[in-house]
Amino acid sequence: MNETGSTLPRRPVLGAVIPVAAFRALLAVAIWTGSTAARAEPDPQGGPLLVVSGPLSFAPLVRKVVPAVVNIAVTQDVDDDSQTKVKVPQALRGTPFEKQFRERMRSRREQMLGAGSGFVIDPSGIIVTNNHVVGNANKISVSFSDGTELPAKLLGSDELTDIAVIQVKADHKLAFVTWGDSRKVEIGDWILAAGNPFGLGSSVTAGIVSARGRDIGAGPFDDFLQLDAPINPGNSGGPSFDMHGQVVALNTAIVSPTGGSVGIGFGIPSELVAPIVEQLRTKGHIDRGWLGVTLENATGGGVAIVSVDKGGPGARAGLRSGDIVSMVNGDHVDTNRGLIRTVAAAAPGSSIRLQVTRKGHAVDVLAVVGRRVDENPG
Predict the structure, then answer these.
(1) Once rounded to an integer, what is the mean pLDDT over residues 365-378?
(2) Which fold has domain 66-168?
(3) Among all residues, which ones are annotated catalytic?
(4) pTM of the model
C-alpha cells in the first residue's frame, strides 16, 4: 500500500533464484512467443531493452520448411564451335578412320549442366525458381530432400523479373510452403535462406535483412531485399523465410568480387513474386501495362515526363513532355521506377487516373494502358 491507500503493482524481485531448467523454459517461451515482458524491463540507463536475443535454434523452422525446398539440375544442348580444330588421337592419324573421326567431332553437340534451387508452393507440384536457372534448359530435373528425383516441365518464365514456374508430377501430395508478406519485413529482421549452394545439396543459412528497395541494375523492376545470410551460386531460385516459416523473398543475385558470398545477397520480395507466379502458372506469360513515355525523377518530387511516344497510350491520353506525375489512382509515386511498376501492374486495356502538375496547375489525366513488349521502356 502507498500513502493514499492504493495498491502498488508488484515488481519482479531482482536476484531471485530460479532453477536452471525453469529459466531455460521461460527464456524459450519469451523468445518464440514474442513475449514483451523481458523487453519492457528498463535497463540501467532507463530505456527499454530493444533486443533480448536471437532464436535459441533454427532447427524447428528448418524441419518445417526444408521438405519443400528443392535442388534443380538443368541440361542445355549447345553447338560447340571450339571443335573446329579437332585433336586426332595418334592411333587414328593416317588411317581411313581419321576423316570420320574429325566429322563426328565437328558435329558433336555437348551438354551444359547447371544447378539451382526452388521451392514448392502447391502440393500438386508447382515450383518457383529463377528464370536464369531454367529459362534455356532442354531438360529439368528436380531433387527433393528425401532423395526423390523427378523430371519437370516449364510452365512459364519472365525475363524482366527473373521469375519462372516449373511443375513436377508426383504420386502423392508434396510438402509446400506459403507466401509471407514482405511489406511487413523490417531492416534487421531475422531471415533463413535455403537452397543448393555450389551444387552441394540442400542447406540453410541465417542472417538479417540489411536493406530494402535495392536497385542493382538487373532490370526495370528492381526492388530487392538485401540479405546478409550467406547466398552463393546455386542458391538462385531458393527461398528466404521469415521466422513464421513463410517465404518473404526469392533469392536471385549476389554482389561479390570472389564469386562466393561476402554477405551481400538480394531477394525479390514476395509481394512482387507472388502475383507474377500466379500469372505464369495460369497463363504461361505476363501481360504488362505500358504508357509509352520516357521518365525521370523530378527534382521537387514526383516523376517528370521527358518525352511522349507519338501515337502511344500516353499521347492519346493527353500527357505532355514536362508534366510531373505525383499520383496514380490516388496513390503517391515518388520515383520513375515506382511509376513504371505501377503502370506495368495494370492490365492492358484498363484505365488509370494520373494526377499531373502542368505549368503549375493540377491536371487529372485518364489513360488507357497499352500492352508492354520487351523493347518498350515504360
Answers:
(1) 77
(2) Thrombin, subunit H (2.40.10)
(3) 132, 162, 236
(4) 0.72
